[in-house]
Amino acid sequence: MSMSTSRLRAFRVSSRRLAAYQRSFAAITEGANVPVKSQAPNRTEVWSRSQRPRAQAMTGPRFEQTDFSLQPQPYAAIELIHKQPVRWTHDRVVACDGGGGPAGHPQIFINTDKPEIAVCGYCGLPFANEHHRQHLESLPETSYPL
């Protein structure tokens, strides 16, 4: 087998993979005239790249009850966590365990040295150093209530 034949074969395999990849991300035209359902009562669009829109939620498996008006629609936590007030501290480092117990998360330590609102990566609770309060309150807008 010559070098050019092996390169041609590798190119064909690569082009097939690329075509399959493009097909997997092709626009879905099924149900184009279906009204858009909101993700949650307080959120209209998805908030994660891995999340499927609610309109496509029950298309794969078979469900007995597909009437969305009868399905539970909890509020989106991403909107609710931004209503939490900032927890002011005098310490440079704070520990967050999400409330502890079975409803909590592993304890992590959050640095509050910078003049910004530091957020827990697990539960999203906001923390800030009391030393930076005047600066944070002077900002025109913050993502959490002060």
Automatic annotation (TrEMBL):
GO terms for biological process: mitochondrial electron transport, NADH to ubiquinone. Residues 92-127 form the Zinc finger CHCC-type domain. GO terms for cellular component: mitochondrion. Pfam families: zf-CHCC. It comes from the Eukaryota. InterPro entries: Znf_CHCC. This is Zinc finger CHCC-type domain-containing protein. The lineage of its organism: Eukaryota, Fungi, Dikarya, Ascomycota, Pezizomycotina.
